[in-house]
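The protein record reproduced below.
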Amino acid sequence: MRVVDSNITQLSQEEVLYVVGENIGFTKDCVVEIAEALEAIDRSDDFVQLGNTLFIYSMLNDRASGQVFNADTGRNFINNCKNYFARLQQKGVQEFEATADCSISKCLKIFQRLLSNTDSNLRTFDMPNKSFMLLQVGKEGLGV
């Protein structure tokens, strides 16, 4: 599993996608998959790169539905989630659902615990090749 500490090296969008692709088994020549992901970013309603993590979503039936691509360390990913949570609150998003590769499932459990004393809720579901998350975004901040 390859990660790149964003405190040391900041990757471009494309580089993040290459690292994630390698981690899930794509070969170095995953040009088509990377191009499709970059097109999805262009078509999305919201996109932000925090550290070496990409968060994207499009609004679908009053719900933000998207993907998370992480090439950062676990600690940085959790901090990126905290910052993204604040961004969702600022944008007025109340529900965020996304898929991500399975490598972040343990980090999502930690983020879930950080939300436990707030009016927000994160549910995660591990599937064979990916994690699915459903985040109910409340009004209370994390206070962390």
